[in-house]
């Protein structure tokens, strides 16, 4: 059962100190916000003033810039930020704007350089942002160059393989901002994974309609009924400080809504096979598949010396810990890989956003170790990490094939966006299964200095 005052818990026996334990719920109230937040330009402008510049934003992953001079560019709204690996191994970020006339210094999203050269007039910058050469410097009046025009630095820090930037000088340090307990992200060792697929699509919807849609599993039986055979749709929802949250989605189990809880279906057999088991030898009940898969994965990890499994609970070996990094990121975390989704606002239209997906995989060279089916990687994808795939970009009028589940979400989001403008809609009514959505909006309102 999932009661509004007694939410579902995945593992009632989890120790209080375990990251799996259900957290005490904060009082997020029962406000019903005005739907204006999903379409109004004024609300969007407030976000550009008081949200995006003030929060730590996921700018990339360390796996993409392993060597000195490797860089990645993170664009958000009117801003473009250049994130560069330094000589000493540290990572620094700069506005991707030339101090001469404002051209972009790096035109590609990824690359590796000794120096950045601005394409407009050839000014050159070192990887630490210092201006290295000003073309025909003697033609400038010296007073204009008295303060050397270096690239402007942006605050940058990284944790567990994830790189964040912050445009605000006043924000607390990254580690104080991340509301998750220490080790929560690090235990998955995302720094040892590689991007094996990167897809960016443009959707009809406000970025928050996107976040909302991925922050609960309440809609699974209705929009994605095909998941019911392998996934519970009651999730454990936990709310952390600063708008952070997670849901634990039990996998390798049938939804409680399915009448037959005993028969081992081909879908469950597939999951056993993925864990290196031979499903033909399994004599148990469907209810025990999850625990059996956990044990098989644990044993396989020990055989292969995958020490990060030791830091994870049994539940983490099968379940998705879908973790919300306020404001615009959710990461589906698994021992084999991570599915990062970034909801990037459109620079001018509050009714559009970019859904940016990085599929990350930790390559293990063993015949009994498989790329999980949930990654939905196209045939022939290089999973070894030897090549960084280019970003597959799809505009608003192009239909990207994101797989059946995400394709369903694309249509859903467009319909909900439209509905948010209806005179007949008075604002979202959130249940306890949507506590993460409420928690997210509450933090947003706190930052914007408004009541919902
Ligand atoms: S704008 Fe970069 S060199 Fe002129
Ligand atoms: Fe969905």
Describe the secondary-structure layout.
Layout: H1 41-50, E1 57-61, E2 70-76, E3 79-85, E4 91-95, E5 110-112, E6 115-117, E7 124-126, E8 131-133, E9 153-159, E10 162-166, H2 174-177, E11 194-204, H3 207-214, H4 220-223, E12 236-239, E13 245-249, H5 266-274, H6 289-304, H7 314-318, E14 320-325, E15 329-333, E16 337-345, E17 352-361, E18 392-394, H8 404-420, H9 435-448
Parallel strand pairs: 11-18
Antiparallel strand pairs: 1-10, 2-3, 2-5, 3-4, 4-9, 6-7, 7-8, 9-10, 11-17, 12-13, 13-14, 14-15, 15-16, 16-17
Bound molecules: FE2/S2 (inorganic) cluster (FES) and fe (ii) ion (FE2).
Question: What does this protein look like?
Answer:
Helix content is 19%, strand content 22%. It has an eight-stranded mixed sheet. A seven-stranded antiparallel sheet has the order 1-10-9-4-3-2-5, with no helix packed on it. The chain has a three-stranded antiparallel sheet with strand order 6-7-8, with no helix packed on it. The protein has two domains: 1-54 and 181-452, Naphthalene 1,2-dioxygenase Alpha Subunit, Chain A, domain 1 (Alpha-Beta Complex), CATH 3.90.380; 57-177, Rieske Iron-sulfur Protein (3-layer Sandwich). Strand 14 and strand 15 (329-333) form a beta hairpin. The model has no long low-confidence stretch (mean pLDDT 96). It has helices spanning 41-50, 174-177, 207-214, 220-223, 266-274, 289-304, 314-318, 404-420, 435-448, and strands spanning 57-61, 70-76, 79-85, 91-95, 110-112, 115-117, 124-126, 131-133, 153-159, 162-166, 194-204, 236-239, 245-249, 320-325, 329-333, 337-345, 352-361, 392-394. Bound molecules: FE2/S2 (inorganic) cluster (FES) and fe (ii) ion (FE2). FE2/S2 (inorganic) cluster (FES) binds next to loops.
